[in-house]
Amino acid sequence: MEAKPADTFIEEFEPFCKWERKDDRDVLEIHLREFKKEQLKVQISNLRILKISGERPLGGSKKSRFYKEVPIPKDFDTTAIRAKFVNGCLYIVMPKKTSLSEKKEEAESPHEDQTKEQPQNGSGQKSCKQETSAPVESAETTPAVSERAVWPTLLTLGEVVVSLAALAGLIAYVVYMYRFMVPQGNE
């Protein structure tokens, strides 16, 4: 007899988020009262997108999950972003670049600034405010942060090569069509 896979009901939701903007950093506070640290995932893509997700069982064959993407503007240091989960709140500290790291990143990254996500309005959420004075370094409370922008130079070089190849093909096509359509003086 075959074993039937259990039908799983997934409840997707949008967690309450709040931004705290400061001169040297921004802090994204995400309220996740029922979640545990092990059920959360924080990633940074090569395209400067912060991806935050989580999934937890509700009981039986039910699960609750969320997925959120936040563009990271160019003036933030992606290598210094830290996440901390405390009292049902996920704090993501995004330090702004210093002038030295800004120049290095601008030389490496071809991507344009993306708009900042606006804070969302929520109701009925408990406040889990915490003072965040420095980038969080505690490994005990930090969800996995992966997919760092490791290869921006290689991506840029690859994009240039592909663009040049496409341009060469376009020029060859235009020259061919010109010679085919315009009568030559020797004929």
From TrEMBL:
Keyword annotations from UniProtKB, A to Z: Cell membrane, Membrane, Plant defense, Transmembrane, Transmembrane helix
A Pfam family reported for this protein in Swiss-Prot or TrEMBL: HSP20
Biased composition (Polar residues): 117-142
TM spans (from-to): 149-176
InterPro entries with a match to the protein in the record: A-crystallin/Hsp20_dom, HSP20-like_chaperone
Compartments, as annotated in UniProt: Cell membrane
Region (Disordered): 99-142
The name this protein goes by in its record: Inactive RESTRICTED TEV MOVEMENT 2-like
Organism for this UniProt entry: Olea europaea subsp. europaea
